[in-house]
Amino acid sequence: MRLMQALCAFLVSWQLLAAPYAAAGSVAVESEYMQDDECASGDDSCSLSLLQLAGQSKAASAKATVERMVSHPGFALSSSFFEGSGASPSGTCSVKALNAPVKSNSMLVHGFGAGGGGQSWRYSGLVVSDGPPTNQVDFDQPVLLKVKVHAKPASWTMQPSTINVGGLEEEPVDVQWSASGSADCPPALCLPPRPSGAGLVGVPSKPPCGWAAEAEVVVSKGGMPAGETGTLLFDISELVAANYSIFKIWAVPSELNNGMWQIPEQIVTSWGFIWLPLEIPI
User: Fold this and answer.
1) Please, what's the largest Cα pairwise distance for the chain?
2) Rounded to whole angstroms, how far apart are CA atoms 98 and 274?
3) What single-letter DSSP state applies at residue 233?
4) Cα separation values, 250 from 57, 131, 234, Å
5) Predicted local distance difference test score (pLDDT) of residue 50
6) What angle do CA 89, 95, 96 make, to 5 degrees?
7) Are 82 and 153 a contacting pair, CB within 8 Å?
8) Cα angle 40-257-147, degrees, rounded to a multiple of 5
9) Which residues pair with 168 in a beta bridge?
10) What pTM value is reported for the model?
């Protein structure tokens, strides 16, 4: 607590210097550095990231950490697939632009179920663009993607999840796609990622069009349990250093239930970036 209070005092002193920067680029310098945030229960790496940022910011004699949490553009991804009786296989895909988190859209979902009539897959993810430009970042401090998540309550047992972040080369475009009784497949961005985790036993059932291609660099955190809310901090320094400014966020089950799975819907209520700029314009 004393460390955070000291850091707050330090950053307040830089508000006047940073005001032109905030006004010019919808960028805010935190005067109360992450004071209202809570790390997810048991997330030691989140707590460590906060402490590291606190100590490093105190040592930065002429710089202030910048946090942008407002008006980040993004895209909601949603897809479903069915294989079984009737018009099969079939599927739907939607990629929709978002200017801010919307509860009905900005959520992370991954599920699979099977019965006598067939089997179905459901997936939702999120793409966040407008990340900090590589040539404007001081990598003496980690670059963080800050995501606030509320896991929807559930009246039945669900599988624990892992939330992942990877880089995208290009910003998506709006897509509305559907197919019924054909082998057509949607754009690759709509394909569900393959479940992964130490608790997986067996081989997850693959949807008709397969799994999404695996990202080379993935940053992971445990998802929120049903009914809980928390802040997740992803260290995306390696991705930003590799010139990524667009990021895909998705969740996968870390366990299976007799070959099937359903994770608590992870509703993303806000997202943004925290980084140390090379210099503060004056």
Assistant:
1) 67
2) 20
3) E
4) 30, 17, 13
5) 55
6) 145
7) no
8) 25
9) 246
10) 0.77
- Sort residue 42 into left (φ over 0), alpha (ψ -120 to 50) or beta: left
pLDDT, tens digit, 9 for 90 and up, residues 30-39: 333 344 455 6
Question: Tokens for 271?
Answer: 């997202």
Residue with tokens 């996968």: 252
Q: How far is Cα 146 from Cα 211, in angstroms, rounded to an integer? A: 27
Which residue matches tokens 């004699």? 61
Residues of the chain with pLDDT under 70: 1-72, 99-105, 199, 280-282
Angle between helices 44-59 and 2-12 (to 10 degrees): 40
Residue 15 is predicted with a pLDDT of: 37
Q: Report the b/e string of 63-76 with b at 16+ CB within 10 A.
A: bbbbbbeeebebbb
The letter for the amino acid at 62 is: A
**Minimal CA–CA distance to 69: which of 145, 140, 151, 14?**
145
